[in-house]
Amino acid sequence: MSAPAPTEHGLFVDGKWVLPAGTGRFSTRNPATGEVLGTFVSARPADVEAAVTAASKAFPGWKETPAPKRGEILLKAAEILRGRKESVARVVTREMGKVIAEGRGDVQEAIDFIEYMAGEGRRLAGETVPSELHHKFCLTIRQPKGVVACITPWNFPTAIPNWKIAAALVCGNSVVFKPASNTALCAYEVVKVYEDAGVPPGVLNFVTGAGSVVGDALVGDPRVRAISFTGGVEAGREVYVKGARQLKMVHLELGGKNPVIVMDDADLHLALEGVLFGAFGTSGQRCTATSRVVLHEKVYDEFLGMLLERLKTFRVGDPLDPSTEMGPVASADQEKKVLEYIDIGQKEGARLRVGGHKLTGGAYDRGHFISPTIFETRHGTRISKEEIFGPVLSVIKVHDYEEAVRVANDVDYGLSSSIYTRDVNRAFRAVGDLEAGITYVNAPTIGAEVQLPFGGVKNTGNGGREAGSAAIEEFTEIKTVFIDFSARLQKAQIDPR
Ligand code: UN1
Asked: Considering the entire predicted model, what is its pTM?
């Protein structure tokens, strides 16, 4: 039986799906099987320009739409996505490779956030403060920024686009959405939800293609007033620099090298489950993934032994099979990069304890499967400091809490962090001491909830946060308003006190 031809998906511009003639096409593939899933347009700069024009035209009407009404459309989108949860989760798993429970989690995170943002339609609060003068009101209101670009990665192909799109929309912005190419089908599903929920034409536009062409054209278009980007550090830096030339607001969410500190008084069984989930969940391809265990010397041998023992029965395979614990990595490029890092680790003298190779034979041969990998290494090696974005965990021995914190902090990133300890004083100290945007106590580095701000310090970003209340900061301008009803000229700072 031959497979059905993959469906061709267009760009979504001004409320219409368009397949521009004369442009190239690209396809997405299942990283577990190699199956082609969909074909998409490699948009040209002119196509991006058309999308920005549509968004510019639609902006005034959307801005004038009462925010609670915008929220209602979002609520509808959340309902629609909930109805499609299983089918979209399967698209996530087939296109990106995370196991089906995590595929469902990805979609659930999207639903949660859209719902949360729908409620913002009835808040979007400013502040009212006293004036130093008589008969004068001082207040702030929140206004949309205008046309915003949402540029998103492949590792959370429904959640992260929605973190951006739902927040941007409820705040009254119009959006041009550019997803990672290898999860374009997931992105298409996201756009369909908003189309079906009744977002007016031009308010949400969708362009696909290479970052170097499509992303570049978007970032360079002077009509795009803000850019929200999640991805790698190098691409993020380019977006930041290019956006800066036009003084755009650029929001960056970049890498991580997230540590779990396991202290000598930790519940080791709890820590074991947390480290495994943090390191090998989503095949280690989360910005929040646990890529280092900073392990107290007193429990070093015992905990490492437990990790190695548990990995003997760890099931890597078909991500659609509910009993599978880890699927493939997301693409041939990822596979190459992760294997290169494994090679680097071995060359720099780290001790490979388990894994360290591509899985082959049978169904493995069709996909990009890498065995869960653990290195023992001293702090300072490249594998202990650089983001790998794959199922590779570095275990580092430390002498005491102070050294653990020093090691945990001595990297260029600062997204997530964690400590396992039963000592409440130490736990609270760690909350203050760990240089990261997120700290967990007795829980893994992954699993952030949407109603809280998400983001990090150092090279993880440029200071902003998304999700939670921070999402409103990201997508609005504050207007400060003075209303003088004294019917005379009053002079702040100058009138007699
Ligand atoms: C990411 O990897 O960029 O906290 C996002 C988590 C998820 C989101 C991760 N809720 O792991």
From this structure: 0.97
